[in-house]
Amino acid sequence: MRLLIMGPPGAGKGTQAVALARRVDGPHISTGDIFRDNIGRRTELGTLAEKYIAAGEYVPDGVTDAMVRDRLAEPDATSAFVLDGYPRTEQQVATLDDLLDARGASVDAVIELVVPDEQLVARIHRRSAESGRLDDTDEVVRRRLAVYAEQTAPLLRTYADRGLLHRLDGTGDLDEVRQSINLALGV
Ligand code: AMP
Fold first, then answer.
1. Is residue 29 a contact partner of residue 81, using CB atoms and an 8 Å limit?
2. Which of 47, 56, 61, 111 could form a disulfide linkage to 140, CB 3.0–4.6 angstroms apart?
3. pTM, 2 dp
């Protein structure tokens, strides 16, 4: 199964995506993780991405799309994957469609984790103590939520129109959310 997991920052996408990837026997591909790994290794890509991430802005589509194209070309992603944090813009949706189309494939389902804004901020606060992420400060979190609302939330409509979207309550504990995802997907 080729799956997308979407939702605002702090919705719990990463944790659920890891469990789901195990379930569908494909890689968990998080664009945020790949950027952070590159920042840690001080690669050229990392240096480029860092200033956008630190400001809560999206890394330019050209850069992100090329990175995902390379990752999806790896053999472990041929028939199943869970994409976490991609696509986030209209152009990324179009790129992903083209990439999959070229292999005669398409997205099978999209999970949206729904969590109210107040809870997102509280969750990120809790996470920031242990994550050491450079983008978990109050000001940057507010910007990330605004960018999500502007650029990414509208994409959910596209996947709903295609009949692929499962809107799920992301406020329960990890197991409850995991079970509702498995139930929705029948996995
Ligand atoms: P995440 O770990 O998914 O919350 O991503 C952390 C940050 O990485 C985001 O706030 C963006 O700055 C950047 N990022 C991750 N995925 C994308 C994407 N698909 N497009 C643009 N920027 C991204």
1. yes
2. 56
3. 0.96
C-alpha dihedral sign at 23, 27, 28, 29: negative
Using the mean position of ligand 1's atoms as its centre, give its distance from the Cα of residue 56 in Å.
8
Question: How many CB atoms are located within 10 Å of the residue 118 CB?
Answer: 8
Give domain 2-175's CATH number out of 2.30.30.240, 3.40.50.300, 3.40.50.150, 3.90.870.10.
3.40.50.300
pLDDT in tens, 96-144: 999 999 999 999 999 999 999 889 988 888 888 788 888 988 899 999 9
- Give the model's pLDDT for residue 132: 80
Ligand 1 atom 8, closest CA: 32
Mean pLDDT over each residue of the chain, to the nearest integer: 96
Active-site positions read: 13, 88, 127, 133, 144
